[in-house]
Structures are given as structure tokens and as C-alpha cells.
Amino acid sequence: MSTAKTKIAIRGLYKIFGPNERDMVAHIQGGMDKATLLEQHRHVLGLRDINIDMMAGDITVIMGLSGSGKSTLIRHLNRLIDPTAGEIIVDGTDVLALNADALRKMRQQHMSMVFQKFALLPHKTVLENAQLPLSVQGADRALQDEEGRKWLARVGLDGFEGRYPAQLSGGMQQRVGIARALTANTDIMLMDEAFSALDPLIRTDMQNLLLELQKELQKTIIFITHDLDEALKLADHLVILKDGAVVQQGDPQAILLAPADPYIEDFVSDINRARVLKVRSVMQPISAERFDGDVAANSNLEDMIALSGGDTRHVYRVMDGDAVLGQLDMKDLVKALVPRVAG
User: What span, in angstroms and rounded, lies between the C-alpha atoms of 300 and 275?
Assistant: First the structure.
């Protein structure tokens, strides 16, 4: 559920790796590309003029191919990496102005992180791993135990508290990682390729778990992935990077229906549009005098094809609870299934 409040604002963010990184910004601003910067100046462009608003209570998914800058970007939010230029504002506070103590406090109390490789401590039990954020904060043992057990149960690991990470499957280890992040009770969760090391079926389970938890907890989640299906499933706001720059961002349904350029069109060309697109994205204002039934705005188009038996003469009234939002003409649905080439 989106809110109007900007939780994290990124403005004019650049990252260049090399000994004279600040001097290189002018070259990039002048139009120099990543390959030329490396060839002529032996510096590596990480991020170019990133501007993103991440809304409170939303899942912002940042995706791109390997080397696009997505993991570099997420590490700027908690200043594991410092930018070459630009601003990062969290709840109105300039993160770049924080001293070491304030930065440590922000990481402990406001931002938790879930890693691709789980990052569990092998010599500690599942419960001790889940308790770790509260242990670092100096919370009393009773609170550590209560919160650790609560969140382990919430992610489906009740009864595994005394096990060690090596005794768990990959999916179970990642559940411990999520429980640990939730135990920290931060309002922001950073998830860097959190599910990419998992088998497909386990990965789907973890995605469903995250969406279930998010419905209840309304965290601000920044999720990094290279997988478009995962991005479209999870994202409230989707940001696509290429060579360190934002190529397109916005509602994932809108991006699928209106790619900004051939790169994005290529990116989305193989997606199962019927499974991903929602009725709300292709509906039109009410104009029909009769309907063949009512359908939910968040039903996918695959469900509609099954419901209509593929009959393009059908027109349905689109509902959100008791509210009438518009109509779905099956002819419009068929047009939406054809990828649009950017022009």
C-alpha cells in the first residue's frame, strides 16, 4: 500500500571509483560514457545522476543486469559506500552529514539488511542469530529471547531455535536472515539479491512470505534483483538501471505497457504478460450499458482469459470491493498482450 510520504530521497547521486573520483564527475556530466572514462582516465563509473523517491511502506525494486550499479546503489543508503557527489535524505535527514556515532545508530535502529549469502554466524544457533541486532543494541536477554522467538515463528521456523545454520537448508537459512532483520525492528529493510541463491520453488515461497509480511508490517523495503519476474511480482515502484544510470522507473505495470526505450522493450519482451498484467492496468472508463459480470481490479489477465473462455465480445465491470473503477473490454485485453515497441 503506497503512501504519499517520501522515506528516502536520492538526488543527483554519482559514484566513480578511482583516486581522483571528484575530478571525474565533470567528464560524466559532460556526456562521457562508462567505457571512455575507463579507457581515458582509468576510473570506473558506478552511478550516474541517480534521482529516486522511495515511498514509506512501499517495496522499491532496483533491477538491472550484472554491472548495472544496483548493488552499488543500495550500499549508499546506509553508507557502506560514500558517493562521489549527490544527496541521500532519509526522513528529512542528510545521511552524508552523519558522524560515525549517528551513522551507527541509524544502521542499528532504522535500517536492517538481508544479504544474498545469508551472512549467518555459523557458531551461533538460529535463535542467537535472530537475536543479534538486539544483542548489539544492548537489549536485555528476556527481550532478545522474546523477539527472536517471535520472528522465527513468524517466518516458519518455530522449533528450530537450537539448530545451527549448517543444519538448515538454504531457504531456511534465508528465513533466519529475514527474522534477524525483523528482530531489529527497523522501519527500512535493505535486501540485496536476497533470494537469488535459492532454488526456484523456494524462491517463490520466500517472495510470497515477504509479500505476506509486508501486508502486515508496511516496512519500507529496497529490494535488489536481476530477475524481472521477481521484480514485477514484488515492486510497488520499479527502477531499472543500465551502466549506472536510471533508464526507466515507475509503476511496474506502466513500464511493461509503455517501455521508455528499446533497452526496456528488450528487457520485458519475454515476460508472460497475461500472468503479470492486472485488470486495473488495462481497464477503461465505463461506457458499456451491460456487463458480463464483475471482476476484481487486481485480477491478472490470465484469470480473465479463463473466465471469458477467450471470447473477445465480453465486457466486465471492474470493482475494488464495492467501488466501481471502470470496465474491461476483452478486446483491450488482447491488445495489451502484444508487447509495445518503444518509439
Answer: 6
* Three-class secondary structure of residue 312 per DSSP: coil
In tens, the pLDDT along 191-246 reads 988 888 788 888 888 899 899 989 989 999 999 998 888 998 899 999 999 999 99
User: Beta 220-225 vs 59-63: how paired, if at all?
Assistant: parallel
Instruction: Report d(CA 177, CA 118) in Å as an integer.
Output: 6
Q: CA 205 from chain center: how many Å?
A: 16
What is the C-alpha separation between 72 and 74, in angstroms, rounded? 6
AA letter at 124: K
Give yes or no for residue 83 having a pLDDT over 50: yes
Yes or no: say if 281 and 265 are a contact pair by the CB < 8 Å rule: no
Q: Please check whether residue 137 is in contact with residue 108, taking contact to mean a CB–CB distance below 8 angstroms.
A: yes
Percent of all residues in the chain with a pLDDT value above 90, rounded to a whole number: 68
Torsion angle, alpha carbons of 262, 235, 83, 21, to 10: -20
Contact 112, 190 (CB under 8 A): yes
Rg of the chain over all Cα atoms, to the nearest angstrom:
22
Which residue, among 174, 178, 177, has the nearest Cα to 198 in the 3D structure?
Answer: 174
Question: To 10 degrees, what angle do helices 126-137 and 141-154 make?
Answer: 130
pLDDT per residue over 86-115, tens digit each? 999 999 999 999 999 999 999 888 998 887
Angle between helices 34-41 and 21-29 (to 10 degrees): 130
CA 92 to each of CA 10, 39, 100, 173: distance values in angstroms, whole numbers, following the listed order: 11, 39, 18, 35
d(CA 160, CA 153): 9
Residue 15 Cα distances to 3, 29, 60, 224, angstroms: 29, 12, 20, 18
Q: Residue 319: phi, psi to the nearest 5?
A: -120, 150
- Is the model's pTM score more than 0.85? yes
